[in-house]
Amino acid sequence: xxxxxxxxxxxxxxxxxxxxxxxxxxxxxxxxxxxxxxxxxxxxxxxxxxxxxxxxxxxxxxxxxxxxxxxxxxxxxxxxxxxxxxxxxxxxxxxxxxxxxxxxxxxxxxxxxxxxxxxxxxxxxxxxxxxxxxxxxxxxxxxxxxxxxxxxxxxxxxxxxxxxxxxxxxxxxxxxxxxxxxxxxxxxxxxxxxxxxxxxxxxxxxxxxxxxxxxxxxxxxxxxxxxxxxxxxxxxxxxxxxxxxxxxxxxxxxxxxxxxxxxxxxxxxxxxxxxxxxxxxxxxxxxxxxxxxxxxxxxxxxxxxxxxxxxxxxxxxxxxxxxxxxxxxxxxxxxxxxxxxxxxxxxxxxxxxxxxxxxxxxxxxxxxxxxxxxxxxxxxxxxxxxxxxxxxxxxxxxxxxxxxxxxxxxxxxxxxxxxxxxxxxxxxxxxxxxxxxxxxxxxxxxxxxxxxxxxxxxxxx
Length: 461
Hints:
Helix content is 22%, strand content 14%. With 461 residues, the protein is an alpha/beta fold.
């Protein structure tokens, strides 16, 4: 009898992992009339199907079971050590359409013929790292359509394992899943059959897992060449297949408070947001000259030592930036016409911060700067903090530039008397004009009355 049973198991051991639903799989979703609410044993197929749990009264038949199916498992946990005790000759286990969330123990070592495990359409979130380490004949592991967010590579450390299915799980696309990129023969990644169907969960919800992880791993390596922290913010797909080359990555690089005196020479590819706050940077020239900054759209360089942005005049960067934060620097003026042109024709421009700088308030710079502030209130976000430099001998000290009048800007306090030299000159000229006109009228009247020419006309030869 033992020899016969061993022969049957050896015969069945060569079944291959199914790519879709088999008749066994369909039972949990479309139960036939002969399937009871508890357990039903088909002796001809040596298959036991149980709905809503498993009772000890069936343990007398466990050695006759080669296919075990649990449908609608009623508990949140499944303890293989306890529930599968005695299923010595089991070759296939299926748990489907259930609220199961956790496997609490590893599979027992006595299951030396178990070839296929199918846990699908459950709420499974947690697996012990050694869940399958005791199984010596496991060749197929189907974990599709569960709630797995993270899967340690040690879970798949089973020498006989050939096919792994993981699609339909909300996997977190982080560096912890980098093992999926190992394509070497015999690696866990090489056994994942549906690798191209794996999708990321939040924050890259719905994006293909493999290319996203490739981007994350590449970003980490590139970030090592800087003193900054790097993070993949989001990914946009181009038209076509969702491979790494068809994805547009948006990366944030944080170099704030690093005591930098210059902007970094090297940035990871696809850096779109760069934080340089709280450093000692004076020069913005790399924005116009360094190709590493070609993808940077948002620049936070507040609380630095920037004294001028004149080097950005006419640069491509100024024509395509999205955010520029220059708060708390050493700016006193800027090329107003160049910035005005950029804000008019740059469709990306959305946020500009210029507050907390020591702005010059004179008749040469301020009127044009004030017009710029008034024309772009939707882009210049901190307009209330854009004030004249604080000085003790200036009436405009620390006043909001937007609200200054032309008189306040262009007339200095020492010119504020009621009479100025130009006014005196104007009065003299006006008086002379009236005197000449008066003399002309008198001479005309005298000529009409007496017929005598004016004295000066009579003396002219």
